[in-house]
Design goal:
Oligomer: single chain
Protein name: FecR family protein
GO molecular function, one term: sigma factor antagonist activity
Keywords: Membrane, Transmembrane, Transmembrane helix
Distance between the termini: 30 Å
CATH class of the largest domain: Mainly Beta
Number of domains: 3
Strand content: 25-35%
Number of strands: 18
Radius of gyration: 22 Å
Shape: globular
Structural class: alpha+beta
CATH topology of the largest domain: Jelly Rolls
Largest sheet: 13 strands, mixed
Helix content: 25-40%
Organism: Roseibium aggregatum
Pfam families: DUF4880 (PF16220), FecR (PF04773)
Length: about 325
């Protein structure tokens, strides 16, 4: 299952190549699914960047042809259309052994960087969840981590300090108190240092944040060690990913990690940010072609048990609508 931390603005760095790779695998697995093909064509036409990413992805995939030695037929055209079932694969030239080995290395690197970011993330993660899944894991030190939908972490519990890297999504931490072994959570450029406490960390496209429920944490940007923030219960720190600016604010403790009870509580967040979070609880992608709509600010509580309804509620105050296209694409418009 794919990681859906990428859902929202189509222009977000790295997300379009991931979507293009996912489309390739979906189309290969379901070459005769007309609804899927129509959804793909819709996605392809939403943004010129989609077609560029698709062409790059297809070109990289076709680089596998010499290695397939006639055994693999992608059956996918440059526009995502399937070949007829009886069509013959293109004639392939068998490369000399050394050239084949070099080609294998080149194509493998290309696939890792371009075609399989989700699979690569899974390889890096020790624990992860799929879309809509909420799961609690117990670490070797006795700490627990509850993962939100489409989230992933890597753990390093043997050393001192203890470390967890939030690779994608959102997680709530209940850290076992060990005065001689600090616990550090890293998410993008944000570092959170604790001894024993309960807090939530979210890695979003616009903002990486930590919100404290109990205890005390110290947070700082990895590239600015001079500015450290000590949070008290009911406080949060938002780090802007674009420029590294940080801001502390008071939050309602009842809203911290409310997603564990299938409620998303947001305060003065952009529509794009909220859509990204809602997108982790359903299959497919959420896209907002209207950038003005994506930048609107909202405050509210959304039901994660019905994410499609939550998307409609999100954009309704702005005269917006959510259009679901065969379950694969959710387009928010006005």
């Amino acid at each position: 299952m794919k990681s859906l931390d990428r859902q929202s603005e189509p222009e977000a760095p790295g997300t379009v190549p991931e979507e293009a790779a996912d489309w390739l695998f979906r189309l290969k697995e379901n070459p005769d699914d007309r609804e899927l093909a129509e959804s793909f064509q819709t996605w392809l036409g939403l943004d010129p960047a989609h077609e560029r990413a698709w062409n790059r992805t297809l070109k990289a995939w076709k680089g596998l042809d010499p290695l397939a030695a006639g055994k693999t037929d992608t059956r996918i055209s440059s526009h995502g259309q399937s070949r007829p079932a009886g069509a013959q694969p293109a004639v392939r030239r068998i490369l000399p052994a050394r050239k084949t080995a070099a080609a294998c290395l080149a194509v493998a690197a290309c696939l890792l960087l371009l075609l399989a970011p989700v699979w690569l993330l899974r390889l890096q993660a020790d624990h992860y969840t799929g879309a809509g899944e909420i799961r609690t894991v117990r670490l070797e030190d006795g700490s627990t981590v509850t993962l939100a939908g489409a989230s992933a972490i890597r753990t390093e519990m043997e050393g001192n300090p203890r470390r967890v890297v939030l690779l994608s999504g959102e997680a709530f931490f209940d850290v076992a108190h060990m005065p001689d072994r600090p616990f550090i959570v890293t998410a993008a450029d944000l570092n959170v240092v604790v001894l024993g406490t309960e807090f939530n960390v979210r890695r979003g496209r616009e903002t990486t944040s930590v919100a404290l429920l109990n205890g005390s944490v110290q947070a700082h940007a990895s590239n600015d060690l001079s500015q450290r923030f000590t949070l008290k219960p009911g406080q949060a720190l938002n780090l802007q990913n674009a420029d590294g600016t940080a801001q502390t604010l008071d939050v309602d403790p009842a809203g911290i990690a409310a997603w564990r009870e299938h409620r998303l509580v947001v305060s003065n967040q952009s529509v794009a940010s909220v859509a990204e979070q809602l997108g982790r609880y359903q299959s497919g992608w959420v896209t907002i072609p209207d950038r003005e709509l994506a930048s609107m600010r909202v405050t509210g509580v959304y039901d994660l048990s019905d994410p499609e309804r939550a998307l409609r509620t999100l954009v309704a105050p702005f005269g917006g609508q959510s259009h679901e296209i065969t379950g694969y694409v959710h387009v928010l418009t006005r």
